[in-house]
Amino acid sequence: MQLKTKVAVKRATGGFALIDSLIRHGVKHIFGYPGGAILPLYDELYRAEESGGIKHILVRHEQGAAHAADGYARATGQVGVCFATSGPGATNLVTGIATAHMDSIPMVVVTGQVPRPAIGTDAFQETDIYGITLPIVKHSYVVRDPRDMARIVAEAFHIASTGRPGPVLIDVPKDVGLEEFDYLPVTPGSVRIPGYRPTVKGNPRQISQAIHLLTEAKRPLLYVGGGAIAAGAHEEIKELAEMFQLPVTTTLMGKGAFDENHPLSVKMLGMHGTAYANFAVTECDLLIAVGARFDDRVTGKLDEFAARAKVIHIDIDPAEVGKNRGPDVPIVGDVRQVLMDMLRRCRETGVSGTAGQTGEWLHRIDRWKQDYPLVVPHYPEILSPQEVIWELATQAPNAYYTTDVGQHQMWSAQFLNNGPRRWISSAGLGTMGFGLPAAMGAKMALPNEQVICIAGDASIQMNIQELGTLAQYGINVKIAIVNNGWQGMVRQWQQAFYGERYSSSNMTVGMPDFVMLAEAYGVKGMLVSRPDELQSAIGQMLAHDGPVLMNVKVTRDENCYPMVVPGKSNAQMVGLPERSKLESAELIYCPSCGAKNVSTNKFCPECGTKV
Q: Which residues are known to be catalytic?
């Protein structure tokens, strides 16, 4: 006879049930800002902090809380947690929730709400945050009964972290947080949600078809997105690339999934990707998309993206497979699990790349790397933005890097060679103000790691108040502002496409003295304005025991190149190095011999192949 185990039941509030459930799910840090409707939860949080079970980080703006939880999740792969009160507190989270949703980041977002009887009466600080966030969350809850709290928290963590990750909202009315009931905990991982069954294992027949295409391809390209990071598939990607000698390109979200120092790496592709990655995707005959979604900033003109290639698309979200580009072999499943099965099948059957199968292709890519390298400009009296990022990469190659959004983000993507999860940047939504609070979250998660935020002078001001949070908790984040006095990417587009009419993009008037501002918050401030100061200044910044904000003055008119002009194919880049002596808009390579500057619908002048 099996004896039933007795489970201890205690009298507790809804607020206690929430905090206790978070602790049971391994939550160590919560980023948040209190207010009237969420005070019952903060009262229970106060007791939990006193006992050492959890730590709350008081941000200076709720958007900072969402981005910090996001950065925490990206750096660790664990679920990030943030709190805000009802009304404006909840709506201030919206940009951060949307950022996490676009980039598939696991978060649990807890908001306070007016008491249940007041819902729908336009009570003080009432907003329907459940309705407002429906398009930008993976799932949502309004807790109507405190007895459901433990189950809801367990479900929220399960949903946020499984399948395609994403943010989950839990809205807690004030009286639910105060109401006492007989509390029964729910064991993490024990919940089963009807109808929610993410596909993990790939279809064996489709995996066999993918392997067959790999054995036939002469010009394959592995195209890796953020899904590979989420799945922790970097080792499997490396093994597959080396087994078949596949060149590897990554999206902005996929940076770090493959070692960018590896000879098979062609780095990032897309609008500001490397020339050799964009040429490779244009000329490949097989594109293996791994956890990528064929985003418009990657594909350029969609009908000319990998137009000569067959496509294998591996993704855990069936809605992404075929959404923008129809694959020849669709495989729905967890990226790491699918690659593990594919590699095991290859080993069991003795299948691998044959000697010389991709040799000519890799040789051609090496020529492109030599002809169209990323260039770091050097000027006698003023720093270039690329120099700043290059020097950071040289002195702190293994740091966790966060960025804001704009030119500095793209230069950082070009010149930083990041390991897994060490690249933290808002890709899908492109959220200015993301970098500083995200760095804060990453550093709280990983206190023994270097964490550096690369920001622009415009974007840093979006959430610069979080310097106060750094100072309060001594969060040892280093911030490098690449200061050109503009909204840099806006200025570049205005120059290129709007007749040099620089409407509302000049940030010099009203710009604060960043050094004085940092020191007013209790953070060390530094100013760098000359090339001969940079190396020493970065060394001092990294050596300082505490947060630092370094304002680096750079040339004002530097543009971020190469650039794929909207509406053009990836092979039609502007701003390639002058050494090419070719008009990039006309540049097409012969798929047979690699000859340059071959016009479409004609025969290659060197080998006669029709292109």
A: 62, 124-125, 174, 489
